[in-house]
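Researcher: Re-running this chain for the archive, since the previous output was lost when a drive failed. Same request as before.
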Amino acid sequence: MMKKREYILWVVSFYVLTLALLLMGTFYDLQIDKAIYNPENAFALFLQKYGEVPRFALWGPAAAVLYASREWECKKTLQALLFLRRKTNKTKPEFSEKVQTGLLEVANIGYGVGFLVLGYFGWQKLIKNVVKQWLSDEAKETVLYQILLVTVILVVDVLAAWAVKRRVRPQTLERLKPLAYGGIVYGILYRVSIDPIKNAVERTRFYEMADPAIYNDQSFSMFTPWYSHGFGGSSFPSGHTASGAATFLSLLLCDTLDRFKNRERLFFALSWIFTWLLGFSRMIMGRHFLSDIAVGAMLGFTFALLARELFVRRFWKKVK
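Model: Regenerated structure tokens:
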């Protein structure tokens, strides 16, 4: 495992570099995009299609792990109910053994259904965003497509939950549980922050200003810096880059699984490289400016750090 001082150095270095890029973008956003804009670039097109997969792939597997290991939630729920019973009913402070068994069964069913529903929406996000790259818009509008899509998602959801339950050892499930919760929290933090910021700033994307069919404004008069309100759009911050930063959740594996204990530097470096490659590709496509990807990377990285601290280090101690 990386020593605390070295870990802090990695974290601080990421933030320092990100802030430096944000400062550079503050002064040169428009010039940089003009210089590298190439919407036909194959590398950038590929990452535009599949670069958000790290975030899309979080909730489905996480829900499967939680479904397979829901016994912990059931026991905690029963403990909470017993505590409330003792507080509210002094004459009969305890449930009978039969009632406790029934409550556990109800909790087991409730959590099972809940995690399967969560898994459905998780797999839906992943499958829809991959399949949509293969089919035309006309095909995706058909009833047959909708039926097949729902069927495939349901099958994947149920099979994943069943496979994890059958194939993964209880000890491993116990270790993966904090990681699963961390992934879910990452997705929630992304949803409650990225879109609201986009809607508040409304920064116009570079490719929209560069396309005569959209604005016919080759003077780029609609360009605005990241810190001011725009003329309509969703350029700031970069959602793709924040999604790419979900790869930093791989650091959580170093906390939970012994086989990855000495891979922290490798995961940190690979996640760092992928996040910035994805951000750079968004600039090539004219979808974002340098300041957009800097803030997107900063937010995504922060989400991963919060997930690691709240749902691995502290949660894992409680589970142990």
